[in-house]
């Protein structure tokens, strides 16, 4: 039986999932990141990767046909010609490139995705000021470097990780403004389809862990796309809402939508059916993220309270409370207003009533989000999978279904590692 391994490098730890051809989970592993010092990041990632491989039983390792890795989007690094990191990587949320945005505005087109303080491209500009920069040969994303540790090839990435670097995912090439105006002595990665095989596993890793010598290492993806893939959604109109600390929506669509006013952008969906069926059109993963979500609920209630109070709510009844649940002022999607104030008044004495108002208000924001994506041209919504802490709340699901007017289901699989395992299977 052939098996496929997906590895997820998330914000709080690394995980792995092995699946069979039917998508059944055969093994899982996890490696929490404890207090690692930033200077040690690449070695701690390397250690985590080897530890995860070691957690999989020998019997399973021997049957793994392909491996794919997802990293956090816009976590980037520089390395030398041998793949050795030449400086500390910059993490996904590191905004120290903000001061270079004015310079980048002279290079990138107006409102481009790269014009953000945390984009991969602004981080590359920031790196270029370092005294260590001349030692660097390659600019890589976290997933690219981890992939290199398994296949031994440098200078390779995928079009999900490369979006925030400025790669043109419609034309599948680096745009001229990037190649002609950037002028940095660095090799930008060659971009593959996520899941596409890069090469076979290195002899060293195969021997050390007893992987088959022809085990394929595939191009990776980002954590949020891997989590979308995990849901199994693959036809236009299917969507995934992530109800974690914040609320993020992603809708699979035949139309590409981008609107920087609302932080809406599209990722290219790796559609492997396309190679065999040329009739199939490109698919896009159109998404936006709101600042509302579970963090506001957590501010008022413990998880146990959320569960018990939710049971007291009749989801068929409409709450008259009209809130905009935020922890602080500012929203981007589906309303773009940096000064939008939290609206959490009036607060009824009864906590279940208050929670009802909160859940219903967040459900309205989610529904408005999908409406906005469709107004801007995305396919009609027909199915919503749910991931994240809020997915476990049946009362909320029923309320959301009332607003969304389409079936709402919890995803069976929500782990990004599972999505990467699917990618490894589909890509090969
Ligand atoms: P993240 O990874 O984004 O921090 P998770 O996906 O782990 O978040 O989800 C945690 C969030 O889920 C918390 O903010 C919490 O308020 C919310 N949550 C947990 N249990 C429930 C529940 N029963 N109903 C609604 N929300 C819940």
TrEMBL record:
One term of GO molecular function: D-ribulokinase activity
Residues annotated as domain Carbohydrate kinase FGGY N-terminal: 3-229
Class of enzymatic activity (EC top level): transferase
InterPro entries: ATPase_NBD, Carb_kinase_FGGY, FGGY_C, FGGY_N
Highest taxon in the source lineage: Bacteria
Example of a GO cellular component annotation carried by this entry: cytosol
Keyword Kinase among UniProt keywords: yes
Pfam families in the record: FGGY_C, FGGY_N
Gene3D superfamilies: 3.30.420.40
EC numbers, comma separated: 2.7.1.47
Domain Carbohydrate kinase FGGY C-terminal: 241-425
Cofactor: a divalent metal cation
GO BP field: xylulose metabolic process
Keywords from the named record: ATP-binding, Kinase, Nucleotide-binding, Transferase
Family: Belongs to the FGGY kinase family.
Name of the molecule in the record: D-ribulose kinase
């Amino acid at each position: 039986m052939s098996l496929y391994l997906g590895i997820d490098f998330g914000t709080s730890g690394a995980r792995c999932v092995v699946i069979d051809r039917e998508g059944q989970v055969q093994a899982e592993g996890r490696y929490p990141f404890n207090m690692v010092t930033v200077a040690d990041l690449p070695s701690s990632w390397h250690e985590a990767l080897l530890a995860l491989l070691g957690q999989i039983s020998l019997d399973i390792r021997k049957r793994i046909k392909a491996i794919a890795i997802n990293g956090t989007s816009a976590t980037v690094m520089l390395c030398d010609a041998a793949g050795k990191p030449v400086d500390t990587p910059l993490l996904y949320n590191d905004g120290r490139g903000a001061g270079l945005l004015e310079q980048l505005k002279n290079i990138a087109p107006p409102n481009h995705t790269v014009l953000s303080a945390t984009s991969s491209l602004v981080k590359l500009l920031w790196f270029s000021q370092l005294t260590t920069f001349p030692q660097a040969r390659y600019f890589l994303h976290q997933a690219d470097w981890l992939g290199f540790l398994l296949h031994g090839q440098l200078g390779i990435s995928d079009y999900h990780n490369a979006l925030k670097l400025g790669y043109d995912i419609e034309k599948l090439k680096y745009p001229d403004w990037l190649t002609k105006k950037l002028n940095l002595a660095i090799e930008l990665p060659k971009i593959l389809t996520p899941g596409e095989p890069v090469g076979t596993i290195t002899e060293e890793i195969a021997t050390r862990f007893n992987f088959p010598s022809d085990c394929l290492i595939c191009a990776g993806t980002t954590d949020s796309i891997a989590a979308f893939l995990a849901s199994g959604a693959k036809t236009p109109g299917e969507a995934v809402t992530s109800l974690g600390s914040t609320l993020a929506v992603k809708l699979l669509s035949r139309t590409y939508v981008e609107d920087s006013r609302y932080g809406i952008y599209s990722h290219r969906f790796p559609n492997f059916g396309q190679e065999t069926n040329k009739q199939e059109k490109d698919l896009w993963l159109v998404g936006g993220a709101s600042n509302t979500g579970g963090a506001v609920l957590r501010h008022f209630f413990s998880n146990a309270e959320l569960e018990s109070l939710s049971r007291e709510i009749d989801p068929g009844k409409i709450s008259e409370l009209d809130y905009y649940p935020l922890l602080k002022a500012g929203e981007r999607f589906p309303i773009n207003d940096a000064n939008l104030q939290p609206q959490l008044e009036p607060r009824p004495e009864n906590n279940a009533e208050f929670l009802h108002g909160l859940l219903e208000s967040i459900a309205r924001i989610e529904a408005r989000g999908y409406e906005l994506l469709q107004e801007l041209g995305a396919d009609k919504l027909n199915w919503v999978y749910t991931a994240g802490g809020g997915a476990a709340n049946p009362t909320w699901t029923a309320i959301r279904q009332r607003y969304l007017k389409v079936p709402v289901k919890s995803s069976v699989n929500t782990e990004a590692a599972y999505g990467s395992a699917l990618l490894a299977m589909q890509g090969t």
